[in-house]
Amino acid sequence: MTPLDDSAGLALHGITVRFGGLTALEGVSLRVPPGQVVGVIGPNGAGKTTLFNVVCGLVRPTGGTIALDGAPLAPRPHRLARLGIARTLQGVGLFKGMTVLENVMTGAGHTARAGFLAGLLALPRGDRDERRLREEALALLDRFGVAGHANALPGTLPYAVGKRVALARALAARPRLLLLDEPAGGLGAQDIEELAEVITSLPGDGGCAVMLVEHHVDLVMRVCGRIVVLDFGRLLAEGTPDEIRDDPAVAEAYLGAAVEEGAQA
Question: Alpha-carbon Rg of the chain, whole angstroms?
Fold first, then answer.
């Protein structure tokens, strides 16, 4: 078995995933240290989503090991929050029947007693946990500039605002590892510009490690300290944005003129 990395953050070693006769990932290894944003890019079918799903516990790898802060990790979707992992998904994914504030509060529900959930169901309020989570959720909404929507329902929100709320909900869990799946999807140029500022600030949240899977190359180049490039399920290159931009193999297989022109991959 491949030895586990004993350093902090997320460590993947030799991750292989096969679906029948199809190999989606072949021996992929990468690290996401605390306090860093690591981007994963590649053309359609490169294995980005499969890799994301492996870390989320939605796909079991055929081979390889996963560690978080040096400890072996066997992620399951329903246990992510307690493992110190939070994620955002493609789209928004907010609970339609809850207000924006309540949605963000659910992100930290695992830190509260059962009475918190009763509070969200409109049973008698006043629980100390609920008051604490409400204050923390409001602070996150204010940080992302959407506090004015606290009492709104998700269905009434502009798409870009919903994306910010989903990110606030993920951070409410105070994760050690934050997984961002296509956060720029469906956003306009100005919204992406503002998103870049938000993502750049994320490692300051207690040294949170951030893994970003994204098609928008410009965004990845701007916010990531390191970038991993996948191609046909294999690790093609890894390095700083400048190293990836100048890598001939990456240019040939994937980026080409897209980086120079700022186009999406």
Answer: 19
Q: Which residues contact 87 (CB under 8 A, 6 or more apart)?
A: 56, 80, 170, 178, 179, 180, 181
User: In this predicted structure, what is the pLDDT of residue 205?
Assistant: 63
How many residues belong to the chain?
A: 265
DSSP 8-state secondary structure symbol assigned to residue 135: H
Query: Above pLDDT 90, what percent of the chain?
Result: 51
DSSP 109: G
Render the burial of 174-191: b for 16+ CB within 10 Å, e for the rest. bbbbbbbbbbbeebeeeb
Q: How many CB atoms lie within 10 A of CB 243?
A: 13
Higher-pLDDT residue of 140 and 110 is 140
Q: β-strands 63-68, 71-72: how paired? A: antiparallel
Extract the tokens encoding 201. 């600030």
When pLDDT is averaged across residues 199-217 and rounded to a whole number, the result is 85
Task: State the pLDDT at residue 257.
Answer: 42
Task: Judge contact between 223 and 192, C-beta under 8 A.
Answer: no
Pick the closest to residue 87 from 208, 246, 233 (CA basis): 208
Q: pLDDT-derived band of residue 61, with 50, 70 and 90 as boundaries?
A: very high
Give the C-alpha distances (Å, rounded to integers) separating 38 from 42, 118, 240. 14, 38, 9
Q: Look at residue 48 and tell me whether its pLDDT is greater than 90.
A: yes
Whole-model pTM?
0.84
- Which spans in the chain are helix H? 48-56, 80-83, 100-106, 115-120, 128-143, 159-172, 189-201, 217-223, 241-245, 248-253, 257-261
What DSSP state is assigned to residue 214?
Answer: -
